[in-house]
Write a structure and sequence with these properties.
Distance between the termini: 22 Å
Largest sheet: 3 strands, mixed
Number of helices: 5
Strand order of the largest sheet: 1-3-2
Mean pLDDT: 90
Number of strands: 3
Radius of gyration: 14 Å
Length: 115
C-alpha cells in the first residue's frame, strides 16, 4: 500500500482541484473539500458528496452549512498501486463527487465515464 502523510495527500488533492476545468469549478457555491482517513461506516468508498445538489437548491437557504466533498485518504491509497495511479484516481474521484453537486446520478456519471 502507498504511504503518504495527510499533508502530502492534501497537497495532491489541491493539485487535482487545480487541474480541473474552470467551467466545472465556477458554479461550485458553498462547497468545501475535505480529506478524512476513512469513512465512519468502514466502507471502501473513495469519496462522498454531502449536501444539496444544484437540482435541490430551491430548499437551500441562507446560513446553510457548506456542502462537503470528502476524499478518503486510506481508501484511495489502498486502491492505487503507485503514485501515478493515485493522481489519476484523486482527479476521477473529485470529478465524480462534483458531478453529484451538479445533480448527476450514479448511473449518469458512469454513462459519462466519470466514475
Amino acid at each position: 500500500m502507498l504511504e503518504l502523510s495527510h499533508e502530502e495527500f492534501e497537497s495532491m488533492v489541491a493539485d487535482g482541484l487545480d487541474s480541473l476545468h474552470d467551467e466545472m469549478m465556477e458554479r461550485l457555491d458553498n462547497v468545501i473539500f475535505m480529506v478524512e482517513d476513512r469513512p465512519e461506516d468502514g466502507s471502501d468508498v473513495l469519496g462522498v458528496y454531502e449536501g444539496f445538489s444544484l437540482a435541490e437548491r430551491d430548499v437551500y437557504g441562507y446560513g446553510e452549512q457548506p456542502d462537503r466533498i470528502v476524499l478518503f485518504r486510506e481508501n484511495l491509497l489502498a486502491h492505487c498501486a503507485d503514485q501515478e495511479e493515485l493522481v489519476r484516481e484523486i482527479r476521477v474521484t473529485l470529478v465524480h463527487e462534483i458531478a453529484h453537486f451538479y445533480g448527476l446520478t450514479e448511473e449518469r456519471i458512469h454513462e459519462l465515464g466519470w466514475g
